[in-house]
Design a protein that fits this description.
alpha+beta, 4-stranded antiparallel β-sheet, 40% helix, single chain, elongated, Alpha-Beta Plaits
Length: 92
Amino acid sequence: MNVLAVELSMRLFDSNSLKDKRSVVKSILAKIHQRYNVSIAEVSAQDMLNQAVIGLAVVNSSRVLCQKIVDKIIEEIESNYPVEIYQINEIE
């Protein structure tokens, strides 16, 4: 069993209030969890207007498959939402 935990730090564009930010973040969390069946949550910077930190964990039989899933998730987030992921930290 392999577990890959990642922390994604991102900038949100077009976020004029915390309500706008939470709307985008909750949408990301729901869709990624539903599509990839991973554990995902906002873990930091909840009160910052244009930043969010999301933690996600993937469990799979292969480390390579875990990394591929994380890569797909990052690509999907950046292509479907007004965000820029500027830092990716792998948590051990």
